[in-house]
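Much of what follows relies on a compact textual record of a protein's fold. A complete example follows; check for yourself that the lines match position by position.
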Amino acid sequence: MKKLIVLLAFANGLWLPQSSPAEEQLLDEIVAVVDEDVILRSDLDRTMANIIKQFNARGIQLPPRSVLERQVLERLILQDLQVQKAMQAGVRVSDAELDAAIERIASQNGLSVPQLRAAIEREGQRFADFREDIRREMLSERVSRGWAESQAKVSEEDIDLFLASNHLNQGEVKLRHILIPVPANASAEQVEAARKKAEETYQKLVDGADFASLATRVSAGQKALEGGDLGWRPANQLPQLFADQIQSMQVGEITHPVRSPSGFHIIKLEGKRDSQQKMVDEVKAQHIMIGTSELVTLEDGMRTINEIYEKLKNGEDFAKLAEKHSDDHASAPLGGDMGWIQPRQYGERFAQALEALSVGEFSKPFQTRAGWHIVKLNGNRQSDVTEEFKRQQARQALLERKIAEEREAWLRQIRGEAFVDIRL
């Protein structure tokens, strides 16, 4: 598709009309062939300009342009491969999803979408290019995470071992990372060359080199262009290699190069902080539901629930009415008793009804997609993290760790299998 766009643009004289044909060719030369797609000089230059602005804003020293250009091109190649995989798998990002993502970006920057557009265009970018960049980032994220999630499995035994090792509550850490890559099926000489480069890089850091600047120049990690900044992450969701390294580290320390299948890693621990204790608001509730269906219309359901509501106001027993009339087959035999629940686990409308009640009160009839409801509040409490919730936390932590590891492995795989012809 990109090739077609370029040809049409040339045919209609849309690329810089005042430039000569030679200048047009120079601007839009192909800098890389990636399987069935190409990356153009204009793509690379636009991304380079954005990265340089980010570096300058963060005060990070820029590496030589040739080094930065190679890093940026490698990121574009990896993104292009992911987008191709997404398209092949039928993964799509709708215009509505893209609009919502751009609204979030604008909001995070304290802007409206028109203000964001104006700011982008003031910097010399086309808003259409910005939208396409965001769409491609969303496609890349979806296909890579989707594949990793399909491979990441967490067993009950994994959770038991995780909880037994007391890894659940380790707070959060802020890390920087440098990866000196080792190719798949590397020879002994290639491994040794990477090890030597990693040791040289480590020594430069020990001698006082700036980690962020060095990461930008030499790292092959996904966050190289952010100075290797991995940000704040729950310690128990880190890849196992990283988690093992930081256990005994102090803030500011840097690890010796550590080997993994992808290469040699150098990690800097920039910060630690405790995660807050998890408390859960719960309510004890009773419930009467009149379900709606093809046989029971909304009007019929409303009539029935209003009749029950009048009986409740006249003093009839909630449990007996629930047992007799409720279509909630789980709670009806128990007199409508739902036990202790988190209010929002049954939806926002259900939570709103409960939050408006005092203990002992029952609600007016209200409607959800399931039908008509009356709910009674019998108690409130705030619970510390239960064993069940701890297991959920452990499962999520392990899952995120495995997803990160699987994603990294998949990216190495598709990069290694791809036909890539770099023409810089």
